[in-house]
Amino acid sequence: MSADHVHPAHDLAERLARADAFAVEHDLTLTPLRRQVYELIVTAARPIGAYDLLAALEPQRGRVPPTTVYRALDFLVENGFVHRIESRNAFVACCEIGKPHQSQFLICERCGDTVEIPGEELAERLSATPPAHGFEVHKQVVELTGLCGDCKTKDHNPDKEHEE
Ligand SMILES: [Zn+2]
Ligand SMILES: [Zn+2]
């Protein structure tokens, strides 16, 4: 881990302020809808999909056309505000906004808890192999599924009831 590692900001206000500052620095327009979608993703405890976002937006904005939300999501992904979890077709807020990076994701298959592990080393090693096969990589996704610490503990503790 590098010395200038920035701690992820867990506080919503802090994360929104960071996103606003990043947008200004990079001349990106965080429209009210984009900002609202970002806020919903930050607030969600688990990766959230487009349809859940649409449902969450409805009380405040009425029915938003899905394409509008998809465009907002594309913007947020392209500019590093959020990451797309391919295996779940859902989105999580980036833990280090403003620092371009490759990430790996640990996804709990029981509760959906998702942890982002930024890591260039693995990404570099992965991208070193394909050219030898004449292969051109367009997208690299590393998602590991399993059980998070909490769910694993429940598994090993028969006294605790399993959540359904
Ligand atoms: Zn990230
Ligand atoms: Zn879990």
From TrEMBL:
Any one GO molecular-function label of the UniProt entry: zinc ion binding
Cofactor field: Zn(2+)
Protein location: Cytoplasm
Stated name of the protein: Ferric uptake regulation protein
Top-level taxon: Bacteria
Cofactor: binding comment: Binds 1 zinc ion per subunit.
One of the record's GO cellular component terms: cytosol
Keywords linked to the UniProt accession: Cytoplasm, DNA-binding, Iron, Metal-binding, Repressor, Transcription, Transcription regulation, Zinc
Self-association state and partner proteins as the record states: Homodimer.
Broad class of the protein's primary localization: cytoplasm
GO biological process: negative regulation of DNA-templated transcription; regulation of secondary metabolite biosynthetic process
Positions annotated to bind Zn(2+): C108, C111, C148, C151
